[in-house]
Write a structure and sequence with these properties.
The chain is α+β, with helices and mostly antiparallel strands and 206 residues long. It has one domain (22-205): L,D-transpeptidase catalytic domain-like (Beta Barrel), CATH 2.40.440.10. Helices cover 16% and strands 33% of the residues. The strands form three sheets. It has a ten-stranded mixed sheet, with helices on one face. The longest helix has 16 residues, at 4-19. Pathway: Cell wall biogenesis; peptidoglycan biosynthesis.
C-alpha cells in the first residue's frame, strides 16, 4: 500500500485544524462558550446554541476595514456586530436589530458601560405599551431585565442617542429584526464585547 497520499492528507488536515480556519471563512469559532455562567451573583442559563444558526455564533473572522482596532461596526442587514482587531481580523457576533420603523444608522461613541444595568423604558415606549409604566422609575437588574448582563450606552454630538448595545435573555431574537432600535447580543456575547470595548470607542451602525 502506498502510504504517501494518506500522510499528505493527514498533514493537510492537521494544518487546517491548527489554523482553526473553516470553509466558511471563520478563523476561530466559540460555539463551546455559551454554557451557564455565574456573574455578579446571577446565574445566567446556558444558551441552546445548536438552535441558533452557526453564522451567528461568536467567531473571529477575516475583516478588512480602514477603521482602527477597537472600533465597533454594526451590519444591520446581515445581523452582525464586528469588533475590529489587529491584522485584518474582527470578532463577529450575531445580533438582533430594530424592527421595521425602528431602524437607524449613524456614528456614535461608547459613552458609558454598565454591568447588570437598570432598564428604564422611554416615554414613547410606555405610550405604546402602557403596561410598562410600572418601570417608569427603572426596572432593577436581573435575569429578566431586557438589557441583560451588560449595556454599552451610545452617545453622539447631540448627546444620548437612546440606543444601547446590550445583552438579552431572548436568544430566539438573534438574527432577527425585533427590537425598538437597540442592538442586542446573547448575554455571553455582550460580556465578551464589554470586556473588549473601551469608553470612547467609535460605533458605526450601517
Amino acid at each position: 500500500m502506498n502510504w504517501k497520499p494518506f500522510f499528505v492528507a493527514a498533514t493537510l488536515g492537521l494544518s487546517a485544524a491548527l489554523a482553526g480556519c473553516s470553509s466558511d471563512g471563520s478563523l476561530r469559532l466559540f460555539t463551546s462558550e455559551y454554557g451557564a455562567v455565574t456573574d455578579a451573583g446571577y446565574r445566567l442559563p446556558s444558551v441552546p446554541i445548536s438552535q441558533i444558526p452557526r453564522k451567528y455564533h461568536r467567531q473571529i473572522v477575516s475583516y478588512e476595514t480602514k477603521e482602527k482596532p477597537g472600533t465597533i461596526i454594526v451590519d444591520t442587514k446581515e445581523k452582525y456586530l464586528y469588533f475590529v482587531m489587529d491584522d485584518g481580523k474582527a470578532m463577529r457576533y450575531g445580533i438582533g436589530v430594530g424592527r421595521e420603523g425602528f431602524e437607524w444608522s449613524g456614528v456614535a461613541r461608547v459613552a458609558m458601560k454598565r454591568e447588570w444595568p437598570t432598564w428604564t423604558p422611554p416615554a414613547p415606549m410606555i405610550r405604546r405599551q402602557p403596561e410598562l409604566a410600572k418601570w417608569r422609575g427603572g426596572m432593577p437588574p436581573g435575569l429578566s431585565n431586557p438589557l441583560g448582563a451588560r449595556a454599552l450606552y451610545l452617545f453622539d454630538r447631540g448627546g444620548d442617542t437612546g440606543y444601547r448595545l446590550h445583552g438579552t435573555p431572548e436568544w430566539q431574537s438573534i438574527g432577527r429584526a425585533v427590537s425598538s432600535g437597540c442592538i442586542r447580543l446573547l448575554n455571553q456575547d455582550i460580556i465578551d464585547l464589554y470586556n473588549r470595548a473601551e469608553i470612547g470607542a467609535k460605533v458605526i451602525v450601517r
